[in-house]
Design a protein that fits this description.
This protein has about 450 residues and is an alpha+beta fold. Helices cover about 70% and strands about 10% of the residues. Helix 7 packs across helix 9.
Amino acid sequence: MKQWNTTITAWLIFLPLIFLIPSAYAAEDTKERVEQVHSVLTLDTAIALAEQSNPGLAQRQAQAEAMSALPSQLGSLPDPMISMGLVNLPTDSLNTSQESMTQWQVGISQEIPFPGKLALKQQAATERANASALMTTEYKQQLIQYVTSYWWQLFYLEKTLAIISTNKTLLKQFIDIAETKYRVGHGLQQDVLLAQLELSKLLNREIELNSEREQVVIRLNTLLSRPTNTAIQLPAFQHIDTTLPEIKPVDEVLDIAEQNRPFLLQQKHLIAAASEDKALAEKDLLPDFKISAAYGVRQGHNLDGSDRSDMLSLQVGINVPLFADRKQKMAISQKNSELKQQQFAYQDSWNQVQSEIANYITQYQQARQQYSLLDTGILPQARQTIASMLSGYQVNKVDFLNLVRAQITLYDYETQLWLSVKTAKTALANLEASVGKDTFYE
């Protein structure tokens, strides 16, 4: 009879716990469903806001537009020079009709670079304008990468905070059950203290995560060019795509990056510009020309009484590279070194891109495997373990300490699940920025 009383008492104490765990997780889903739609910030919306309002991106777009205006300027002839003057005026009388050579003169002159020089200048400027446009694209992709990373970091923090909220409810119930068993003589005071300690740890972790969430919100709002205290609410979980797709082998991804990464294409344009600069320096050994024409109006009369004829002057000048060894040839050497510098810079950049891509692929594959293992293996097993331990706890076959530790372990696994999602999604965002295109999925 005593044994039956003990069993009934245990059941009465334990019965609320049976319905608590599923109801706690159901409360989390209910909380997500009541989100206000108008304040929801989806990832696509965040990216669109960043592209529209980020001042750093606008600055680089303006710089690219300015660079695009240079080629036509550098490819045009220098402006002609128009001159007006009084020539051969006698100083004794300052009379414009006294001497036959005195004349009012109007002239025009035009500098003409050696054929091919202007084309080289224009082509070099065009290459640099293209490089500037590509750097705008590069910055845009880096901006998307940062926005995506912070968005998924915020997602992970909110999921973790929701899990903590659920576990807080469970631990409070554990405390109530432990206190009840202790009062009726079927439990230990250390069980109550243990549950209270674990609850305090969760509260401390909640404080840390809330602080981290505020920092992420500040960074994300800064990228979106919004006030840093603007509230951010993510969509309901069921509306967030957490799938982790297959990606192509690293060799294929590298081929895509070599053809599409804006940073690498920019380096190629800078190499082309340096090559044009070198060719222009070589052409500077050839002379430029200057053509001038002037029309002189004379006043007064000749000795025979006839009017003095007007004068027409024509002139052609060339510059002579007398100091070519110290000037033009040294410029050629300089431009050749600058070309090599750009070539080495491209090779260094390509090596860095290869390293980045390999690293991000490794991070993604590891996080993807961890997610699969947690979702299909560890978490179901952990939940089954807790269910079994709960059944054993009701008949005093499982120690309360082990039950609490099992619940905390489940909490750790659940947070690791969403950490793996965040890590994988962040690695994908980094990979897209490094490749320059999102065509590396299978």
